[in-house]
Design brief:
It is a single chain. The two termini are about 15 Å apart. This protein has 2 helices and 3 strands, in the order αβαββ. The radius of gyration is 11 Å and the shape is globular. Helix content is about 30%, strand content about 20%. By secondary structure, it is α+β, with helices and mostly antiparallel strands.
Length: about 60
């Protein structure tokens, strides 16, 4: 499900860029400081969509 949502976010980013996306169950307030700065932490409870320039990077949840 998360990969499917990430694909939707990736397509959306092409026409409506955004600063950060979070994917997972009850993600409100779950983002960490590294994601706020545009980097992915090594261990993630939720997935992130983080733009770097014109490219959107997806970091899937891995814990």
């Amino acid at each position: 499900m998360d990969d499917w949502l990430a694909a939707i976010g990736t397509e959306t980013f092409k026409s409506a860029p955004f600063s950060r996306g979070v994917i997972g169950f009850e993600v409100s307030g779950c983002t960490d400081a590294s994601a706020m700065e545009g980097r992915l932490s090594e261990e993630r409870d939720i997935g992130y969509l983080i733009p770097q320039g014109e490219v959107l990077h997806y970091g899937a949840a891995n814990t």
